[in-house]
Design the sequence.
């Protein structure tokens, strides 16, 4: 297992539509192990494969950040098959560091996908978990947090982000 570098905006891999996972083999398991280790090291509640530079439809989520071992979700080729409600909550992204912003999302979603054992599963998420599902699936479609905002909000946020970058570089 290894901690991988997180790709950050404006890395072009974050803008690509990721390819479906077709081969469920040992190297996929190793990739997932690295994703889980990288997510916990940051720490983050979710990580999509493009965020470590692998353009595949695959994510890991653990909204307990390792507190509960059975909370870890690994899903390949995930699809939202149902979504209801709408909530606006604060959200951040490891690929857009320094930014936390209010984003509207569905409150409850059902996600269909494949486990590493090639079992097709449907998972229901509510609240924070539903938000994590939507955020990570957005990554697989090349979308980042500010794509879910209004144009004006986006411009404000991007200027905040630029300021953050300058301050970070300064020290
Ligand atoms: Ni993210």
Sequence:
């Amino acid at each position: 297992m290894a901690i991988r570098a997180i790709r950050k905006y404006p890395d072009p891999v974050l803008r690509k539509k990721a390819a479906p996972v077709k081969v469920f083999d040992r190297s996929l398991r190793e990739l997932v192990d690295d994703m889980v280790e990288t997510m916990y090291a940051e720490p983050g509640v979710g990580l999509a494969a493009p965020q470590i530079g692998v353009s595949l439809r695959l994510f890991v989520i653990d909204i307990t950040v390792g507190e509960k071992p059975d909370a870890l979700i690994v899903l390949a080729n995930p699809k939202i098959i149902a979504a209801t409600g709408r909530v606006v909550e604060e959200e951040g992204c490891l690929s857009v560091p320094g930014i936390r912003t209010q984003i509207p999302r569905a409150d409850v979603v059902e996600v269909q996908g494949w486990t590493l054992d090639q079992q097709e599963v449907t998972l229901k998420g509510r609240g924070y978990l539903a938000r994590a599902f939507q955020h990570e699936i957005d990554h697989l479609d090349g979308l980042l947090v500010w794509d879910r905002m209004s144009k004006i909000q986006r411009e404000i946020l991007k200027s905040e982000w630029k300021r953050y970058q300058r301050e970070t570089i300064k020290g």
Q: What stands out?
A: The two ends are 31 Å apart (CA to CA). DSSP finds three helices and seven strands in the chain. The first helix runs from residue 26 to 41.
